[in-house]
Amino acid sequence: MARGHRSQIKRDRNAVKDNRPSAKLSYARVSVQKACFVLDAIRGKDVQTALGIVMYNPRYASSLVEKLLRSAIANAVNNNGMREENLVVAECYANKGPTMKRIKPRAQGRAYRIEKRMSHITIVLDER
């Protein structure tokens, strides 16, 4: 059961470095569920197809994902020397961020809570 000391396990886990190009958008003002609708549509596609999908998607999250996808492509081309034609969306996911709590006044002195959710969106590319 014991695989070594906790610090050694952490050291081993952090030693494995993922060299795939990626881009991350933190604290995006869109809920995880709404962002995942767009991310599910582009997962596994090549970047030209993915850009076409998000450019003509009417959802608000698609504008955020488009900008993030263009950033990931630029990272791949400039930092890793990859060719844009060979890039594929390997991973894309949205993690839960902090939630802003607001109050909405209602009838007879009541107050309803409004939760404005945020998410952290990540896109990882890979070569075909």
Would you give an account of this structure?
By secondary structure, the chain is an alpha+beta fold. It is built from 4 helices and 3 strands. It has a 3-stranded antiparallel β-sheet, with helices on one face. A hairpin with a 5-residue loop joins strand 2 (87-105) and strand 3 (111-127). The radius of gyration is 19 Å and the shape is flat. The N and C termini lie far apart (39 Å). The model has no long low-confidence stretch (mean pLDDT 94).
Major β-sheet profile: 3 strands, antiparallel
Strand order of the largest sheet: 1-3-2
Class by alpha and beta content: alpha+beta
Shape field: flat
Spatial separation of the terminal alpha carbons: 39 Å
Annotated CATH topology: Ribosomal Protein L22, Chain A
Mean pLDDT: 94
**Number of separate domains:** 1
The number of helical elements comes to 4
Tell how many strands the DSSP assignment holds. 3
CATH class: Alpha Beta
Provide the low-confidence segments as ranges.
none
Strand content: 25-35%
CATH architecture: Alpha-Beta Complex
Region (Disordered): 1-20
GO molecular function: rRNA binding; structural constituent of ribosome
Keywords: Ribonucleoprotein, Ribosomal protein, RNA-binding, rRNA-binding
Pfam families: Ribosomal_L22
